[in-house]
Amino acid sequence: MDGKGSSQLPPGFRFHPTDEELIMYYLKNQATSKPCPVSIIPEVDIYKFEPWELPEKAEFGENEWYFFSPRDRKYPNGARPNRATVSGYWKATGTDKAIYSGAKYVGVKKALVFYKGRPPKGIKTDWIMHEYRLSDSRPRPKKHNGSMRLDDWVLCRIYKKKHVGRILEEKEENLGPQIPVTNSDDGGEQHQSPEMEEERSIGTAGYNMGILMLACTVLTWIAIHRWSQRHTKGPKTWPLVGAAIEQLINYDRMHDWLVKYLSKSRTVAVPMPFTTYTYIADPANVEHVLKTNFANYPKGEVYHSYMEVLLGDGIFNVDGELWRRQRKTASFEFASKNLRDFSTIVFREYSLKLSAILSEASFHNREVDMQDLLMRMTLDSICKVGFGVEIGTLAPNLPENCFARAFDTANIIVTLRFIDPLWKIKKFLNVGSESLLDKSIKVIDDFTYSVIRTRKAEIDQARKSHDDKIKHDILSRFIELGENPESNLTDKSLRDVVLNFVIAGRDTTATTLSWAVYMMMAHAHVADKLYSELKTFEEDRAKEDKISLLHYDIEDSKSFNQRVTQFARLLTYDSLGRLHYLHAVITETLRLYPAVPQDPKGILEDDVLPDGTRVKAGGMVTYVPYSMGRMEYNWGPDATLFKPERWLKEGFFQNASPFKFTAFQAGPRICLGKDSAYLQMKMAIALLCRFFKFNLVQGHIVKYRMMTILSMANGLKVTVSRRS
Ligand code: HEM
Q: Which residue lies with its CA nearest to atom 19 of ligand 1?
């Protein structure tokens, strides 16, 4: 709509003044009776008209119209302006905006919305007004002539909302800083309700209030949550994340972190996001979980999902029928005398290989990493005993072993999953640790499937030549079983069998042996006592076998190695059973450094443990051998001391309840390889401690690494000397 003055304006003229221009060039001029740059703003008392009547009063404008307007007082003695028209009223909205010219405060802009009817029941319309006032305009003192005039002039821009162009412009305006004007002269005019700018301001205020209330609620919640835990013996938690933060901070020393809490309370509940881990160290609770109510505490879905990538559906990682079938086959194999005899030969052979490497290192004053050597020894042994293949990682040149490295990496990463809530996302995106895990699994699988292929080919070959030596190992037993189509045993099942036995047979035994060697270094009197037992044993056995012991010179490698070999022949399954102190040394090592330091179980149904602790379905209960071995309530005041004698009564080894000494677990899932493990460990330690003395390399730090097995983070660097 063109106003009356538009005919005098040049073609294409548009009027888009800024707030500052409106104040500086129009309102100021009007107030001081100077001419404006263009005279297109008429003087109209806008409160005498309804907003929709105003466009035709304007001199110029299409979608917005400008007016100079006087303001009247609402009440004779008040400073509030009268904003009523005949049919309605203008109502202020939002925060006033200060207008600056450079750094100088020159005016105020107020937004108003027109309501039809009378307050407070007026109906909001789309008519909007921006009222500009000079900063120095002050309400005139009330004149005695009875004039109701409030101040000289204000400049009003009127427009109707919902015009797209206007909305865009409005948005632009709203981007500018809104500096609230405190010294407002509107006499406490109420600022309420919508219009675009207004809605935004009110929205912002409401939003800020909401944030404030939310923050207060959260802080109160946290405070109450923390206060309610003042008597809790377990770790203090935070809402939602539970103890996850504390667990992450203490991740590298997690086992000792648990010792701290379990020594204060035999059962500790650790809330985690979406679940609770309950840790137990009380033998009565352990018996309940591992035996009495065994069916309620399976490995469970959570454990299975975390470990599946590595252990698949192998015996360690399944429940129910799948577990029962594997347990039956493996138990049968472990009970066989054939396997025991075969194992004794293999363990002796590999212990001798290890002795030869140590002897060589001792003659050349070379440092060795005992943990690495022991891992090689047990890997070679389990591959030979378990799968009938020779992999030769303990060869004198100690060949690089990709499989072992990949296996360790995978083991570390799957353990991390238990406290890393982001692992599924990382796995989905194949980034970070999960990407490394993926690569490691490929290396592991390549090795494992090649073992299976080799063994299958050997079995075929043996069959063709009617050789019946094929049945001494566990893998062959499973391969044979797989030939029955009803067994559903695929190559993938065989892969899982192999990997489960690798973790069972290699890592556990090598780790225990490493800690035992470390204990010998840390407790010289124990090493000496063991040495005496072994010397006596050697002499007794030689007499029994009616052989004379070879003379040897510890400076002569040939005679030294011959004597080592002669001693090894005296070590049989039966004769090793007589070495009670040796048995006690290994068991005491396992008490303080159990190869499986904690072992979680799922919970099928809500239950109450014997000490009254309630556990909820879907959570986890973990018995903690590492803590259990260090608890005074389990072992007396000297619980933390390394004392093999605690296992001996009149020189004979006395076992403890498997629910108190839990290194091999207990109940229906007790370790199947316990005897085999003792056989290998006793064989190795007998040879090592009879003929060698170990010294920790100066500055080498011995500490555990967080993975399912309690291996040493930096290995075990030692120097070796020979014993006479
Ligand atoms: C110091 C050596 C060993 C220790 C401390 C040890 C400890 C354990 C523990 C704590 C479990 C229970 C694991 C779980 O529930 O996830 C277990 C299970 C098992 N162990 Fe051992 N183990 C050792 C050596 C061996 C060896 C050498 C073998 C076999 C070659 C073996 C075979 C098994 C098997 C098959 C199971 C699974 C039992 C089942 O779930 O039914 N272990 N072992």
A: 671
Dihedral (C-alpha) 9, 10, 14, 15: value to the nearest 10 degrees?
-40
- Report residue 313 as tokens: 């559906």
Pocket test for ligand 1, best of 343, 508, 623 (most atoms within 8 A of CB): 508
DSSP states of 26-37: IIHHHHTTPPPS
Ligand 1 center to 354 CA (angstroms): 23
Interval between CA 315 and ligand 1 midpoint (Å): 10
Residue 416 and residue 423 in contact, taking contact as beta carbons nearer than 8 Å: yes
Cβ proximity of 710 and 593 under 8 Å: yes
- Identify the residue whose tokens are 């450094």: 593
Ligand 1 center to residue 596 CA distance, Å?
A: 9
Which residues have any ligand 1 atom within 6 Å of their CB? Answer: 315-316, 327, 330, 382, 501, 504-505, 508-509, 512, 590, 595-596, 599, 663-665, 669, 671-673, 676-677
How far is the centre of ligand 1, averaged over its atoms, from the C-alpha of 669 (Å)? 9
Average pLDDT, stretch 283-304?
94
In the structure, what pLDDT confidence band is assigned to residue 482 with cuts at 50, 70 and 90?
confident
Candidates 215, 220, 272, 211; CA nearest to 241 is 272
User: Is the pTM above the cut of 0.80?
Assistant: no
Tell me the ipTM for this assembly. Answer: 0.98
Please, which residues have CB within 8 angstroms of residue 407's CB and are 6 or more apart in sequence?
440, 444, 502, 503
56: amino acid identity, one letter: E
> Amino acid letter at 279?
Y
Contacts of 528 (CB under 8 A, 6+ apart): none
**Nearest Cα to 76, choosing from 138, 140, 133?**
140
Q: Give me the chain's average pLDDT, please.
A: 87
- Whether the predicted pLDDT of 197 surpasses 80: no
Q: Within 13 Å, how many C-alpha atoms sit on residue 488's CB side?
A: 5
270, 172, 177, 279: which is closest to 229 by C-alpha?
270
